[in-house]
């Protein structure tokens, strides 16, 4: 399918016959499209349409199974983030911002690009100041990166891309956590980059933003490129129809009959919000809206017992005390935070992430095991020990690989309250501290692995089945 890139603008990126398959899923199916220099192009589609996979390939995070990618007229032979950035000038600003939070703004901007053989702090600050001035930012380059607002952290990543002579900038849902004024500032910067000749690829679900900032639009559906438009030649209704494959008529809201009150908050207060009253009834979907840092996320975390609060919480008319997420889980409350990386081991398959959740719900696991006629000792030997060890080891590897300021590794083994086996923080303030922390955590995991393996061999040698050891 042909693209809408302006005939006057040279092509920055050309994708031809791109295919990417995962077990049981074809994420991209013969996708061909292009992106022009000096233009802002949107990539739209429903969840699962293939947008993230396409962006990952363009940024070098994944390799296509079939197809060819050209950047600046040159074919991409090696798909890695380093190769795409340094050889072709392609940079990705992800939705979930990853920074060295304990390091300064200047160190984050110039990471891997430090001036001189032995760069001084003064020279780094001077270079970072010059780059920040280019985008009209007044951020202090000596400030700790973790202390910046979400908008400034995002700006920092864009400036980092500029420092690496970025010619293609990919932004994945960049306005999700920004206020209206911050969005306006971001758009001003993007127009400045566009006018300087940068090709900007903009991924978003927010149609008003697409019409405000983009010149061209590509639409993906079920892994295929189904349509391309010039922004001035298409309506929001046509875009929605292209994304879902059918005309979508607006429906009036049907108010349902109110059911019984399932969740009731009265005077709930914490450091981030105050005196919240809320009722959620059976069969009802309640939206909690607010700007970033308004307390909306902290309110949900407090209901889950993850944030200290005072006031009263009633479930089905009965007052409950939620001192921890474990208390909330016992009451049947689930929680999916905004940053999924907080609760997932990204290097583990889905089934082992599920196991992690199961082994953290000791009472539920115990009752399920007893329902199958298993004793607590059988549950420990046959279920929790085999599941906990790979979770611990993979969790350690994941934590060392992930570039997070403070990483907590915690693996819980039930066993009637055996408790927390490993809980260790790794600070990235000093690389030597990071290495020492990683080694110590790895050593703890190896010792735990050997202990559990020896315990399992001992039980097997004694022929223990359902009885407790003597």
What is the CATH class of the largest domain?
Alpha Beta
Biggest sheet, spatial arrangement of strands? 6-7-8-3-9-10
Biggest beta sheet summary? 6 strands, mixed
Q: Report the radius of gyration as a whole number of Å.
A: 26 Å
Percentage of β-strand residues: 15-25%
Named at the architecture level, the CATH assignment of the largest domain is 3-Layer(aba) Sandwich
Shape: globular
How many structural domains does the protein architecture include? 3
The topology string of helices and strands comes to EEEHEEHEHHHEHEHEEHEEHEEHHHHEEH
> What class do helices, strands and sheet pairing give?
alpha/beta
Question: How many E strands?
Answer: 16
In the predicted model, the low-confidence regions spanning at least 5 consecutive residues are: 357-369, 379-431, 464-470
| Number of separate helices | 14
What fold name goes in the CATH topology slot of the largest domain? Rossmann fold
